[in-house]
Amino acid sequence: MNRFKIVVGIVLFFLTLQASGQALHYSQYFNAPLLINPANTGFNPDYSYRIGGNYRSQFGNIGLPYNTMGVWADARVLEDRFENGWLGVGGSLIKDVAGAGNLSNTGAYASIAYHQMLGYNSLLSGGFSLGYVQNRIDISKLTSDNQWNGNFVDITIPSNEPYAYSAVGYLDINMGLNYAYFASDNVYLNAGVSIDHVNKPLGSFFSSIVSDNRINRRYNAFANASIKIENLWIVNPNIYVSKMGGSWETVLGVNASRNLSGDGYQQLIVGLYYRNHDALIPMLGYQVNDLKLTVNYDATVSSLGNLNGTKGAYELSIVKSGIFTNSSNTIKCPTVKF
What we know:
By secondary structure, this protein is mainly beta. The protein has a single domain (3-322), classed as Porin (Beta Barrel), CATH 2.40.160. Helices cover 7% and strands 51% of the residues. It contains 3 helices and 14 strands. The protein has a 14-stranded antiparallel β-barrel. The N and C termini lie far apart (56 Å).
């Protein structure tokens, strides 16, 4: 291993250390609704429940891959207890693993949201989630620049890194708002804002004497629309913006569903997204009845492409929706569908 690769590895390691304190992110953020905004919990007008899974792998051709995975579920409940409103309840398990030190971030979250119809054409939602997160690292597998002897990394030289713990855990609080406007049977608009890490938890592997660096709050906003064209296409332009500390992330683009069967039972999904200063993201998917499968590939367009050959990441998501057999389904939201 030459010194250049060591430097790159160290940079990526500290990037993943920083990412472990953030809410995990996907290019298909719209297929991880509880992760983006707890107010999305139970916001699924056509169905009683949803179950989803996400998997992402990146940096695999630079070093050990950075893998992110998660499962989630939510449901509408108590529809007969509120006037033109309902509760949404849900939960999610998320994990990522990165680097030679097996840096891992594992979180379990429970979320709840209340949804209230405002007249016949709009819906206001507010949500809250509480989670427990644990970070782990295998310090014995780590090396540092202090161990470079001029020719190679010598593990017999002390790293002099002030690690105090190999595992830390903390409570994490998130909250958000969501607004939807159903303009017609052919047009639907939606926007939301949320704040992650409201309590600014401490999740450092160093002692508080060395570092009292708390996890910054993360501010998120999204907007999307569904536009039905004849009975052939439903087009979904959308944008997601996130800020944490001095870092920004913006993902914008469009996906569209093509009605293959005439009744919407089978749909082809195509899309193209762009993450600002990072990647171009083509997407392809297929939906059969209430089961949707989508994949995407992040092609790096930033200077990092010089290191990874423009090979950024690939991602897979699957979402299954359904209706409870005993559901009263008393509240009907206008929706855009085939």
